[in-house]
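Quick note —
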Amino acid sequence: MKKTRICQLLGIEYPIIQGGMTLIANAELAAAVSNAGGMGIINPSAGEPAVPKIPDNLRNQIRKAKSLTDKPFGVNFSIQLIGEDRTLIDIAIEEGVGVVTVGAGSPALHTKYFKEHGVKVLHVVASVRHAKRAEAEGVDAVIAEGYEAGGLNSPDELTTFVLVPQVVDAVSIPVVAAGGIGDARGFAAALALGAEGVQMGTRFIATIECIANQSYKDAIVEATDTATVIMGRRLIPTRSLKNELTKQVLEKESAGASPQDLLSVLAPGLTEAALLRGDMTHGQALCGAVAGMIKEIVSAGDVVKSLVQGYDKIVAGLK
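Predicted structure written out below.
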């Protein structure tokens, strides 16, 4: 397939970026994606839910990835979690990380700092307005993420198919499509919409290298087309696999529960319970709507390979 501006920007062979999933985007996964020609991404909390230990964990994860690949990889930062604190950012810079994906907050907060240190910034956006602001703040590319995506979502609830072409038309920097992409068909469709790359999270959870709990991986593979749901619209909309937790939260929301009432149900540690400990009944199992398309657990390298080969076949068939 042809090289896009994302390939050139990141120094990668294929415009495929692995999502920086909280708690489970580990060094082994990132290295495997990078070795296959994509861009692997580490999350600072990979395998380590204890906040005081995350700085050392990030440094160790970066060094582990470097021992497994000589290809580029990046780190994901959630502004909602780090706020103005640059401890983790400085660790990434000290360790020579050259690419970051950033979301859940304003691009004005850290973009200039990253750029001053030679780090390329890809900012997650959920609307044209967000994309224009990110471009104005100097980010190198935007990741236009539709609400099919797992985890935190925008209250605007724009789908990927609607969001991506509008963002492409609104900015001059490269656009990466995310949300609901899990195979070569989605990859080809994203590029047809004008995106110059894709980011996938859920598909890379169901891989051999990902440290997610096996029960969580199995639940993704067993998921149907209607297996996920958005909950927490009165707080922060979040897409997860349906279970007793989501049922309880949705019932409270339907009954008009206040944000405080909802927070009493959404106790700390529920995401860790699902992703790392495998509690698929009461844990918050963050997951994209694409789960229904995922039928097996394979290597991350095979995911990248299938995307590229499938894309080439699809494009050839359209000629």
